[in-house]
Design brief:
Helix content is 45%, strand content 4%. By secondary structure, the chain is mainly alpha-helical.
């Protein structure tokens, strides 16, 4: 389901691993905590999500769902976390926003050992 990064308990605060985990916390609004596989969430991904939220369609969901939004976690995986039975339909805007938040919280809970506020 989620690809949670292994953390080194001996890693010093501010180490490279911690910086990577916190990279998305500088993102504003619904993208807070989101990040791409190798760094910040790409602008093209953010734009595609915003376009989808304005006018969700099955076709746009098919193009959007493989996008990584929290490390290697895709939008489709985030959607499945919040709605396991929803695989046969595309999410409504509020459902996709909730899926983003849940994926971020799950990532932080898995990497730090405790949930973090994401907004």
């Amino acid at each position: 389901m989620l690809d949670l990064p292994a953390t080194d308990p001996q890693a010093a605060p501010g180490s490279g691993a911690r910086r990577d985990e916190r990279a998305g916390m500088d993102e504003p609004g619904i993208f807070k905590g989101c990040r791409g596989v190798g760094g910040p969430l790409p602008e093209a991904t953010k734009r595609a999500i915003l376009v989808y939220l304005c006018k969700p369609t099955a076709g746009s969901w098919e193009r959007l769902k493989p996008c990584a939004i929290v490390g290697r976690t895709t939008l489709a995986e985030a959607w499945t976390l919040t709605n396991p039975a929803g695989e046969h339909r595309f999410p409504a805007p509020q459902e996709l926003i909730r899926a983003l938040r849940v994926a971020v919280i799950a990532q932080w809970a898995g990497s730090t050992g405790r949930p973090q506020n994401t907004h």
